Fold these 3 entries.
Entry 1:
Amino acid sequence: MMSFLSVNQLSKSFGNFNAVDHVSFEIERGEFICFLGPSGCGKTTLLRMIAGLELQDEGTIIQNGIDISRLPVSQRDFGIVFQSYALFPNLNVSENIEYGLKNAKVKKAERRARVTELVALMDLHEHVDKYPQQLSGGQQQRVALARALALKPSLLLLDEPLSALDAKVRTRLRSELKQLQKRLGITTIMVTHDQEEALSMADKVVVMNQGRIEQCASPNLVYRKPASEFVADFVGSMNIFSLEAERESQATKDLQTHLDLHSTSASLAIRPEHLVLEGDVEFGLASEKGVVVSARVEAIEYFGRFVSIQLVCDAWGKSLEIDLPSTKLQFFDLSLGAQHKVALPKEALHVFSQDAETA
């Protein structure tokens, strides 16, 4: 079965800078995809090439069985919401939504019916006569979405649509946006640098770095089984340390034995929530199947549901971060300088070859 969108070996350079470097991936109809990565990784350039706003140097884009690689923007089947929303300040809500329909020369009665439908869908009844400057950020986003959906595109492109909103509004709207996407069944690509957005909203996450795809997988796999040290470090919190730098320590030798590693030319990584303090009911099993190191409390940060504890590992002289549920605080001495044994369970450790990372 043919994928809805197929991107093959897409590249784009600006002078000597490779913004997108031979990128390939496929999207199925109805999927919600997030391009995730730091600033300058190429995610927005990639989105703009799919929209036809940038012309690729190499590669092809196939949408619904049609090669759209060289088609002008006007002949591509998509709706787009920009980071700034780009609403027309001189048009009210109703007129902003209607704008694309007018340009497409849709009959007046049909335009009005479609605008009414979208106003209801986006819950904008009370705002149809207002102008953009009279709306909140969340309301402006709904108008921009309605305008993007007006012509019933088969593909929706979102360029960091939530980044300008405050944290509480952003959390609420990302849930609303995901529900809307599922209700409409529209294939959606969203650009974001916010890992929480990508993990909570996407069916598939495309993690990008320096113009290339590091991993393309479900949020669960990206988090649980990062394909590279970059993904491990960028997505979520991760303790990462080099075996080469600490090759003489007993803890490193124990790790090599447990993980059957014949070389120290590797980095190890483990999530903060997977480290286990002595005294925890899981410590016994974790220590049997992993490695135990001694560490002292250096700092504590309280986040409500959990506490982040910074420990200095005696064996490596490195900091380890542990996330501990607030409900377990009473069972541990977390005063500064307190010594603890910490288990690193084998099944929670990720090994990244430094040779592979630099290849």
Entry 2:
Amino acid sequence: MLAIEARGLRKTYGGGWPRRGAGREALAGLDLVVPEGAAFGLIGLNGAGKTTFIKSLLGVVRPSAGVVRVLGKDPEDPAARAQIGYLPERLFLPHAFTPVQFLSSVARLKGLPRADDEVRRQIGRVGLSGEEARRIGGFSKGMRQRLGLAAALLGGPMLLVLDEPTDGVDPLGRAEIRRILAEERARGATLFLNSHLLAETERVCDRIGILSGGRLLREGPIEALCGSETRYRLTFAPPVDAAALLALGFRAGEGEGVFVVDAPDPSALNEYIDGARRAGARLVGLAHDVRDLEEVLAEALGQGGGQGGA
């Protein structure tokens, strides 16, 4: 079963009676499927349509056309909603509540019986042990973000929709959150992330979609989007005769002794390596060259345009 399925999904804001005009199209025939158990990251510029799509998944926004299914059901189906854990980008928490009070209220809304142990377990998982009796109003942004994640995790939902999950969290906290998300995947949950922190998205997700103008420009495994079958990164031990390597067709890479070369097949790659050795270079590292998501995003937007919805 698919965790998320969108077919020809469109959403237009405004433009109807009594207003005149075509309205603003936030989603323009979006097609996307996310398999169960995947970790999917949706990236794009502000206004690409990411927020509208998330609202469609949650049943908050009804599409103008097309179909969206969550865990095989309509997003407005209570059975589907019960299996979704959501962390919003703009997280508003009751300042007068303690973490236990807040999570207990969320558990009641989710219909979780006898949730005291589950509440305290999730508090511990997100690193807030010892803060149970403290009022949320005194929490830092990172602590509030951790608490919001705990709320999303309550009850073990099968789909986690996380909007900027590590925003405001320090580096060690981000590592802890990545560990928690890995645990959730291990038990079979699907992750759907929307984040501007592309490096974090690369670390968490195995599939990526690039959204622009309400359309999906690219989608697939992160290795396929960021990697290259014919480009290699080679590292040579110092000292390196850079001029000799450049003359052979190598290009300087990032870092000391790092060079990049395009080779259509293993034979061509070995010819480059043999030439480097004849020039006195000593190879100590070889790998496929991998671009980061920033490069992939910039390339996709350059080809597909960057205007969009909400």
Entry 3:
Amino acid sequence: MDFLEILDPNGRRRHVRLERPRMLIGREPNCDVCLPHPNVSRRHAQLQQTEQGWLLQDLNSLNHVYVEEQIVEQIVLEPGKLVRIGDFRLCLRTAPTPIEPDEIVRTDDDSSPSWPGLEPGWLEQLQGFQRSLLKIDQSRPLLERLAEEFKRVARPQLVAVCLADRDPNCWEVVLGSTDCQESRLRVARQRIKDDTDVQSWSDVSPSDRDTPYPGSAMSLIFPMKGRSGIIGHVYVDRPKRSPMPLSLQRYLSLYAHHAGIVWENLQITELRLAHKAYEAELRQARQIQVELFPAKFEVDLRINAFGVNLPSVKVSGDYYDLVKVSEDVVGFVIADAMGHGMPAALLMAAVRATVRMGLALRLSWQALFAG
């Protein structure tokens, strides 16, 4: 019987029996040959048994099928000749190559393999996490959701999340507890820098020798990367698997990166909402300011007067007024407060109130402007 030998991105090898005349290859778990990786399409290619042999056909996949780094649409497989799909290498075998026991990728379901160190269904869980973030409209619940997912996947003693633009000694979210927690968080803060890669270190001490975790006690820092750079970090202390496999580190980095993108989107949305609220307040302030100007200019039939205010911004410090002081006296007031915006507009309102009140009390102009 023929076999399809599959070499995954981590160098692990497994075999799939070609028991049916047509077999589907793709990322979906229900494919006959499941290659769980984002670079593999849901239904990437198919194998079909023909008179010439096993025919491999590309199903209009996004990342194509490669033979000797050349794109092919279909090819009859030759035993031992490598074909690349995503980061996987495939070749036809008439008999399975012996595999050492420690080289076998162990999964609960042979039809749905996973990266080494990851449980089956990891891709679906990642997609579910991405969908759950889209339902969150505030920053803190997003960070809490990220920390919960890190705790579920890595099963560490402690998970903490911090933001780059906040207090250096502040952790936004802390889940779990461990010995010397404060000192560990302080050391993690000292190690945080603008690295785009995962940092890890071991801190074995005599008190750590009785830890139930295998190997040395490991701590890791995962950067949260947004479009503009590093926006935060996730600290993982003593995960269950220590040292943590590189595949699991890359997997958790996907969580941190996606959360960073969504967090940035939330910040942009909050800025837009705040800007809209500010614009609404300015429109209200402008309406109030317009009402402070004279509603009519017919204070004396002997005078033909007119005035208009055209500010360069929403509100300004421009001020004019027309007040009948006595039977034969009409007061004209024209002023301009220094500056622009709300401070100048508030000063203008104060000057108007002072002038009107002073004239109502029959103060002289000298006394009025002397304060």
